Amino acid sequence: MVQAELPPHIEQTVEAVEKVHVEHHKAASPIDRVLDCIRAAISRPAFLGLLLVVVVAWTIANAAPPAARQLDPPPFLYLALALAIAAVCIAVLILATQWRADLLAEHREKLILQLTFVSEQKSAKLIALIEELRRDLPHVRDRVDAEAQQMTETVNVSAVSQALKGAETSIPESDNESANL
Known about the structure:
With 181 residues, the chain is an all-alpha fold. 77% of the residues lie in helices and 0% in strands.
């Protein structure tokens, strides 16, 4: 497949996002890397097939011989124990790898929030400059634009945060649960 030429600003953005992911990967401990490899292996459909083959083979191997020669006679207590241990290990593995993924998501969320604030400040500055230019141009009628004046002011983040918290607490519990679904 031929890769399309991207404008430089988009290439820079792609490189910046890739840099965040590379830094996250480099920050992983050796144990985190091993857990990621194990998670990648067991999350494939082939692992489910392999697991089913092992369980069926174990069942047949222990049900077919006479009772005296069975290593794990029905109801297959050793198999149940092995599967229970595997289930606990997989659950812990999922939690551990999810924790690392949450760290990356939290970092991305903070980065997006910071970039949003910077964009908002830039937009306010642009509106202020356009308003100033409009006032200075002789062939443009000078008038007061209250909405544009309000937009030149940056948002008070603390006030917005408090308003959001107040709105969240004022929603009845049953409405809040249905909104989360």
